[in-house]
Amino acid sequence: MKKIGIVAALAAVALSVTACSTGASGSTGAGSQSKEIWYSTKNSTEKVHVAMANGVTNGAKMLGFDGKVVVAEADAAKQNDQLNNLVQNIRPAAIVVNPYDSDSVSDVLGRAADAKIPTAVIDNKANNAKVDVSVLFDSVKSGEMAGQKAVDLLTKKYGEPKGVVVDMYGEVVSQVFKERAQGFESVIKKYPNIQLISVLGAPQQDKATSALNNVIADQKAAGKTIDLVNTPTDTATLGAVESLKTNNLWHKAGEAGHVAVISHDGLGDVLKLVKDGYVDDEVVIDVFGVGGIATEILNAYPMQGKAVPTSGTFTPKGQYLNKEVTFTSSPTGSTVMLAPIVVDAAGADNPLIWGNVNQ
Hints:
37% helix, disordered N terminus
């Protein structure tokens, strides 16, 4: 996969579509004359969303199309207006959408289907809408994998799964964070000698710092310390790091007083902490793959006039963490769930992890 630096990527996603835009015209779907595949992203400020955009545009280029990006800037109404313009005026070969609002985007996705424009949804579900394919992250599995790593780390420390575990489960409005917490805690609760402390402390870095400070203070007052922290996202991890430093609990794995840390996503700053031995494990999501694989599936099926399967497997041509994916059926149509991977210091430099791209 071609690596694009953060500056170049931001320039790419800075494209916007106005109401009077014109683009490649012609029929859509099978036999479309358009050579453009458009991606609608939620924002262009977070590195993870820039990387997702790169996945779509690199995939489009590999398939012989121009990859274009339109930016909603965290505004559901703006995203819907931009998508309406794509459907009514641009009429590209295909559209890939990361919905800012899973409910409000359903109407325009319906119009895309009526216009026979092949459409994929990635990262966030689109509720009450039929699309050709949804490519999503398996957030429950991410949490379960983190939970099993926590059990392994505690067993290595004590000879059995016991200790004090802090789960900073994130915003209650985030379905992804809910599912990660669900998966993590379902594993931890199987072990009665593990004390689980669930605390709202993410994704804001400062809130994570404050929340963990309070937990550590409470444990000190009870004559205890904490053994492991799990966060639902890397931003929260950076906050937890500040708390551990403030409380003299920031030590490398293997050193006395080390508090184990498990993080999620694959941000470069946290991957460096994994490589340096301070963060034990990172549960990495396939950020390049979510958009790239969606683009490849659109090209292989609806852009050729074929329905996307609801069973069986698909092997993408691009280089992603997921080498083969499985189709399943869902209320929104065919769905692919991308499996996460867990990396420690030995695997944190994998070039397919989005956080390792030049930033």
